[in-house]
Amino acid sequence: MIIDSFDISEPILKLEHFYGKKGHILEKCLVLLSDNLFNHLQSHYELKQIGLIGGSSYKIPIYAFEYKGELIGAYLSSMGSVLCAGEICECAHITGATKYVMFGSCGTLDEEATRGKFVIPTEAYRDEGTSYHFMPPSDFVEINNANKVESIFKKLNIPYVKGKVWTTDGFLMETVNKVKKRKEEGCLVVEMELAACQAVANYFKLELYDFLQPGDVLMEGNYDKSLLHAANHDLLKLDIGLKIIEEI
After folding, report:
1. Which of 70, 139, 147, 233 is most buried per CB count within 10 Å?
2. 59 within some domain
């Protein structure tokens, strides 16, 4: 079964087989999930390509830019747990970065609790496959740096709510019964990357800092996507991400 996939024996394939020796270029990196935010970053900072993630079907450049006297990495991530998580560990090997700040959008399961607020995840429900290859089975994975992210939000006086989130690979299968079950378990929102990214970060001894912006609303018979575009591309997320980069 997928939940029995974790195995502590030695991996046969390793990143050095594809990328050579591990790099040591920088320490911190932004994981962007919006082309608008990436384009804004590119128009306001001088980005220099320092690496390339990818295989036979796609390539993702990794860039570096100077921010307040420090060299910071950034790249436009793929969506979905397996690609997003894999790109983090590949970036870590190529650049040496150990601290990752990631911010995307999410669908809210509790509109009242999340209205007008960012979400700081504390745990992610593992409804995806990748995490089970990188850590022992469990329903949730703890998001290690939630308290640190919360302290920065408090310092910035930005409205937020902390709580559990639901990570799923089941695109278009956020069914009525699943939504009810996840809400009963305390999940505030649903997204598609975090559980896998935290599991990979734990395995490779990386630090992940994550926050989310609610967009669409998942309610039976009343799906609402009116705020989804804004949540995907809100420039405030980039400002907050850079502030977290300063603080970690």
Report:
1. 233
2. yes
Residue 195 belongs to a domain with what CATH number?
A: 3.40.50.1580
Phi, psi dihedral angles at 199 (to 5 degrees): -65, -45
Residues contacting residue 6 through CB under 8 Å, at least 6 positions apart:
132, 133, 134, 135, 136, 137
Does this model's pTM top 0.85? My answer is yes
Q: What is the DSSP letter of 115?
A: T
Q: Is the dihedral of CA 23, 25, 29, 34 positive or negative?
A: negative
C-alpha 186: how far from chain center: 20
Annotate 157-197 with DSSP letters as a single string. T--EEEEEEEEES-TT---HHHHHHHHHTTEEEEESSHHHH
Residue closest to 47 by CA, chosen among 69, 74, 20, 26: 74
Question: Tens digit of pLDDT for each residue in 154-207?
Answer: 999 999 999 999 999 998 999 999 999 999 999 999 999 999 999 999 999 999
Q: What confidence tens digit (pLDDT) does each residue in 112-156 have?
A: 999 999 999 999 999 999 999 999 999 999 999 999 999 999 999
